[in-house]
Task: structure prediction
Amino acid sequence: MLSIIIPTLNEEKDLPTLLDSIKKQDFKDFEIIVSDAGSKDKTVDIARQNGCQVVKGGLLSYGRNRGADAAKGDMLLFLDADVFLPEYFLKNAVEQFKKYNLGIAGFSIQPLGGKMIDKIFFNFLNVFSTLTQKILPYSTAAILSRKDVHQKIGGFNEKIVFIEDYPYAKSASKVSKYKFFWNLPFYTSVRRFEKDGRFNVYFKYLLAQIYMLFKGPITSDIFKYEFGKYKDQTKK
Result:
């Protein structure tokens, strides 16, 4: 069974898009767990109306871990609330995950709407992730892992406040097999780029990568990341 875990905070605009894309999948052996961090809008109502289990969340690492604690499946798919899954994504992802006997997997990421610069940025990231997957395991926004591997590494590090998914993939790859699937894309909104400015966001992530390379995981709010700040700007 696949447990899909979605951390949320005020996601009433984007969550229905994600849930609708999940409902349209060929693969049906799954449960959906929404880890909500205290939404003030209709996020929780929308989740329950769509048959999701709702658990108490918080920052991303905490919310993902609480969702994993409640999961019944032996595979965990962590999704950001503003992503969209193309047709057959779940079926193909699970089949390939099992075929290669993986413990952790990352997927090609594409912008949902946005500008040409966004497509260039994401394609560069996908090529880089493919070429460096044996030394720099990368998973973000859609992360598939085995539950036993998740438990073995202690889940997501809840002390990390920004880019918690990289250390998670790195830790999981040390105790299991990792693979980046460049041919299994999913889509994510560009709302953060549109709100904060593309140069600002790209530069922030570049600095964060350099910081992690030399100092390790980011456990202080030096990059001023705000979970749940961007509510709606998904463009189809």
In short: The chain has nine helices and eight strands. The chain has one domain: 2-191. The chain has a mean pLDDT of 89.
